[in-house]
TrEMBL record:
Chief localisation class: endoplasmic reticulum
Protein name: alpha-1,2-Mannosidase
Residue sites binding Ca(2+) per the record: 662
Cofactor(s), names only, from the UniProt record: Ca(2+)
GO biological process: carbohydrate metabolic process; ERAD pathway
Recorded topology in the membrane: Single-pass type II membrane protein
Sequence segments annotated as region (Disordered): 183-216
Gene3D superfamilies xref list: 1.50.10.10
Biological source species: Erythrocercus mccallii
Molecular-function annotations in GO: calcium ion binding; mannosyl-oligosaccharide 1,2-alpha-mannosidase activity
This protein's record includes keyword Transferase: no
Active site as annotated: 304 (proton donor), 437, 544 (proton donor), 573
Pathway the protein takes part in: Protein modification; protein glycosylation
GO cellular component: endoplasmic reticulum membrane
Length: 673
């Protein structure tokens, strides 16, 4: 800036100093010359033009300013330092907080989720949400917020302390973060995915399930929203008319009791968690905490209560981290143990969980093969979690025994086993349907659960699939659909239960885990058949049992239905297999097929006042004859698999980390891939 510019007012007077500091001023006096030499010469000339007095005054002023500068430097230094530190701290604090927030969801898993505070919860949305820190999926009371931290510091000492704290916080938060797994499934140390023997002594070892990379939540799509709507509708019926009872009777607006243990509620717990139904989960949790009592003089079926209750509680424990569910699981697990006190150690079908006594059905001392061989995933997991080997021992013994039994046909097992002799009975009938189905499923799944080490299980599974190929596969007319029939004393029957439709999913799971590639080809063929069991029927819903036409007949489809078999119980098996097929192939046709099925459930089984009902006649769209019962597996399995089928998030129950029990309750794989 010019202290004075007299260019327009005549010749400059000597009393004034003119200092040219920039090009603008030079331009103002005619032409731009900003060379260093010119400027140096100009300053020197002006200095020489000053009087002696003027020069002395200026020199004095410079000297005075220099002294003042030195004096003030010492006292201002401290102030400067503190200001500088503070502003650095503030900068760091502002940057660090968001960084910490991003690195850590500010929602940390709590050891005792029951006491935790409500936290954030993902909104159901069709839009891609803004990038947010990972938020645990699931009810918020099972989450606790990270404490608020005042990062501002006043002194240097405080600054250092704050830096140390930040490092500590970062460390703690990284540790805490490492125990959050997919979408909020929290694995506590005692949930770690180590086999039983290791778990007991090394509870602190985090599993790779826990260390899973946190990803942005995948938004929920329209079809998933439709599943949520269906679930809510079903839940409304259950809540209004059957709360705390086993099954809803939606038409008579009442309930039925099987074990008197709130079966639907327990079966649905992890579905609510996966669907993100916070309020419903909360309410159900309260019922489990306050009203679920196993000390009851009641006979329960060992298999059904294991897969639905024990399985449901264990998976809910894993997903939520809430120890309430583990406590309840231990309780029911212990109460089921008397079933194994038999001469052969093959368990009885029924147990009185209040009295601690067990017995076979009144008319026989046989148990069903599928029942005694499809309780293993749950009891083994209970041993791993509790450190009490007795559960696993009991069920492993059954498998070992069945492995050695004669009476199999190329790996295919009969349907009954005697609890006294331990031998198969009613020999000669082989099916993949009722009474044998999940034996095959659990061979593969136990092998996967245990880290693919138990060779006898794999051997039995592979043999059995060869047996299926050799004895039970046939093709129908006119569409040449490959189906799984039955063998009775050497005679092939073209009968296939809807239950058999678990098989494509299981075969695909095996192929995914490295088993023969032709298992996948068979899975693709069979799931098409299962879909046709829906598509070829008037309501678009499958009957309980179909018979396939082996010979082409004019006007006949592949699928024939007998009057006694034309009911539909809202079963899950086809949707279950569609889910596996979609996960492993990414072929959208499987989603489309599932979508058709959901729409048909809505069309023919939905009860306006709440709930869904089984129907008696899938062949009559104008009157499907509602049966007035909603099975617990509709909420436990069918809707859960629908939701997962429509999801494109492979981490929403990652199949390399979780294994579903036969009631669709996911349990951790002990040595995940
Ligand atoms: C469920 O309880 C289980 O899926 C079981 O394995 C078979 N039956 C029902 C569903 O159909």
């Amino acid at each position: 800036a010019a202290m004075y510019s007299g260019a327009a007012t005549g010749p400059p007077r000597r009393d004034f100093i003119s200092v040219t500091l920039g090009p603008e001023e030079a331009v103002g006096v005619g032409g731009y010359n900003n060379s260093k030499a010119w400027r140096r010469r100009s300053c020197w000339r002006k200095w020489k033009q000053l009087s002696r007095l003027q020069r002395s005054v200026i020199l004095f002023l410079f000297a005075f300013l220099a002294v003042c500068g030195v004096i003030s430097y010492t006292s201002m230094g401290e102030a400067w330092r503190s200001i500088t530190n503070k502003s650095l701290d503030d900068q760091r604090t502002e940057q660090e907080i968001p960084r910490l927030k991003l690195a850590n969801p500010a929602v940390l898993p709590a050891p005792q989720k029951a006491d935790a505070n409500p936290g954030d919860y993902p909104e159901l949305s069709l839009q891609k949400p803004p990038k947010l820190p990972h938020v645990r999926r699931g009810p918020s009371n099972l989450q606790i917020k990270a404490p608020q931290r005042d990062m501002r510091v006043k002194t240097r000492h405080d600054t250092m302390r704050a830096v140390e704290e930040l490092v500590e916080v970062d460390k703690v938060e990284k540790t805490e973060q490492s125990i959050i797994s997919w979408r909020g499934a929290v694995i506590e140390p005692d949930q770690s995915t180590e086999p039983p023997s290791k778990k007991i002594t090394e509870p602190e070892k985090p599993s790779s399930v826990e260390a899973e990379h946190q990803k942005d939540p995948v938004p929920i799509n329209e079809r998933q929203l439709a599943v949520i709507e269906a679930f809510r509708h079903a839940w409304k019926g259950y809540k209004d008319f059957a709360w705390g009872h086993d099954e809803l009777k939606p038409l008579s607006k009442s309930y039925s009791e099987w074990f008197g243990l709130g079966l639907t509620l327990i079966d649905a717990l992890d579905t609510m968690w996966i669907l993100g139904l916070k309020e419903e989960f909360e309410e159900a949790r309260k019922w489990v905490a306050n009203d679920l009592v196993f000390d009851k003089n009641v006979d329960v079926n060992l298999f059904e209560s294991t897969i639905r209750i024990l399985g449901g509680l264990l998976s809910t424990y894993h997903l939520s981290g809430d120890s309430l569910f583990l406590e309840k699981a231990k309780d029911i697990g212990n109460r089921l143990m008397p079933a194994f006190k038999t001469p052969s150690k093959i368990p009885y079908s029924d147990v009185n969980i209040g009295r601690g006594t067990a017995h076979p059905p009144r008319w026989t001392s046989d148990s069903t093969v599928a029942e005694v061989t499809s309780i293993q995933l749950e009891f083994r997991e209970l041993s791993r979690l509790t450190g009490d080997e007795k559960f696993q021992k009991a069920v492993d013994e059954v498998m070992k025994h069945v492995h050695t039994l004669s009476g199999k046909n190329d790996g295919l097992v009969p349907m009954f086993i005697n609890t006294n002799s331990g031998q198969f009975t009613h020999l000669g009938v082989y099916t993949l349907g009722a009474r044998a189905d999940s034996y095959y499923e659990y061979l593969l799944k136990q092998w996967i659960q245990g880290g693919k080490k138990e060779n006898e299980l794999l051997e039995d599974y592979m043999k059995a699939i060869e047996g299926v190929k050799k004895h039970l596969l046939q093709r129908s007319e006119p569409k040449r659909l490959t189906f799984v029939g039955e063998l009775a004393h050497g005679h092939f029957s073209a009968k296939m239960d809807h239950l058999v439709c678990f098989l494509p999913g299981t075969l695909a799971l095996g192929a995914h885990n490295g088993l023969a590639a032709d298992h996948m080809i068979l899975a693709e063929t069979l799931i098409e058949t299962c879909y046709q069991m829906y598509a070829q029927v008037e309501t678009g819903l499958s009957p309980e049992i179909v018979h396939f036409n082996l010979h082409a007949q004019k006007g006949h489809k592949d699928v024939e239905i007998k009057p006694a078999d034309r009911h539909n119980l809202l079963r899950p098996e086809t949707v279950e297999s569609l889910f596996y097929m979609y996960r492993f192939t990414g072929d959208k046709k499987y989603q489309d097929w599932g979508w058709e099925i959901l729409q048909n459930f809505n069309r023919y089984t939905r009860v306006p006042t709440g709930g869904y009902t089984s129907i008696n006649n899938v062949q009559n769209p104008s009157n499907p004859e509602p049966r007035d019962k909603m099975e617990s597996f509709f909420l436990g399995e069918t809707l859960k698999y629908m939701f997962l089928l429509f999801s494109d998030d492979i981490d929403l129950i990652n199949l390399d980390k979780y294994i579903f029990n036969t009631e669709a309750h996911p349990l951790p794989i002990w040595v995940p891939a």
